[in-house]
Amino acid sequence: MKKRLCTICARGGSKGVPGKNIRDLAGRPLISHSIKQAQISNLFDVIAVSSDSVAILDVAKSYGVSELVLRPDDLASDSSGKVPAIRHCVETVETARGLQFDSLVDLDATSPLRLVSDIESAVRLLETTACKSVITGAPARRSPYFNLVETGPNDSVRLSKPTDPPILRRQDAPACYDMNASIYVWQRDAFMQDAKVFYDDTRLFVMPENRSIDIDSELDFSLVELIFRQRDGRGQHVGNR
Q1: Are residues 86 and 192 both part of a single domain?
Q2: DSSP label at 74?
Q3: Both ends of the chain: CA-CA distance in Å?
Q4: Per-residue confidence (pLDDT) for residue 240, from 0 to 100
Q5: Quick one: 157 and 82 in the same domain?
Q6: Cα angle vertex 121, ends 71, 125, to 5°?
Q7: Residues 164 and 225 placed together within one structural domain of the fold
Q8: Do 76 and 134 sit in the same domain of this protein?
Q9: How many folded domains does the chain comprise?
Q10: Which of 14, 9, 3 has the alpha carbon at shortest distance from 181?
Q11: What is the CA radius of gyration of the chain?
Q12: Where are the alpha helices (H) located in the chain, listed in sequence order?
């Protein structure tokens, strides 16, 4: 039986939406939605929340999380990456528990629209293919081969990935995806030896756009609230598979 750790990382500071990780969403703190999904899945031996904020850790504790990891300041600044914080969380929990996990799953606290079935499918993809990592994403609205542009010298504009001959219809362009940051899954040993997102065999689990919003602005928060209200109206709660 594989041992799995779920990490949920949530900083106290947020410029786009202040205090967003414990802000009320559909009647309870934002971070609690990810905690509940992890609990309902029954996939994890341990669920851990990592934060530099005591207030966030207190909320996590109130929702039944036993592993509360206080993140060092150098891993909690605006310029700090998430991967080092996840690694710190894994090391802390493994030391405290005296065990080593097989699989690691990170659920982004600001992506509450995922379903439990998304978590299950991403974990299954990792464990059935024996790849080193799985990321999640949604079909991209813009294609670098067709209508995604970048600026060049003298403010000129060009396609990000021009082809010869040029692609004249979006439908003819290679499929592209937006990373939605919702779920990351790793083989524990690969991650601890070389902590990063992409490896030579990283796989993609595709999620629909309406489950892929990452809250980074007030507009995002409003859109997620609207989707939650629509789900409630249909009796489809976020924990549903």
Answers
A1: yes
A2: G
A3: 22
A4: 57
A5: no
A6: 90
A7: no
A8: yes
A9: 2
A10: 9
A11: 19
A12: 30-41, 54-62, 82-97, 116-129, 188-193, 218-233
pLDDT above 90 coverage of the chain, percent: 80
According to DSSP, the β-strands at 133-139 and 203-206 are parallel
Residue 169 has pLDDT above 90, yes or no: no
Say how far apart CA 50 and CA 119 lie, in whole Å. 19
Whether residue 79 sits in one domain with residue 19: yes
Crossing angle (nearest 10°) for helices 116-129 and 30-41: 50
Q: Are 104 and 16 in a shared domain?
A: yes
Closest of 235, 240, 227 to residue 26, by C-alpha: 227
**Side chain identity, residue 26:** A
Q: What six digits make up the tokens of 5?
A: 């750790």
Give the structural domain span for 76.
4-138+179-233
Same domain, 133 and 150: no
Q: Of how many residues is the chain composed?
A: 241
Whole-structure pTM over 0.90, yes or no?
Answer: yes
CATH number for the domain that contains residue 120: 3.90.550.10
Two tokens, residue 48: 């851990």
Residue from 108, 106, 83, 81 nearest 7 by CA: 106
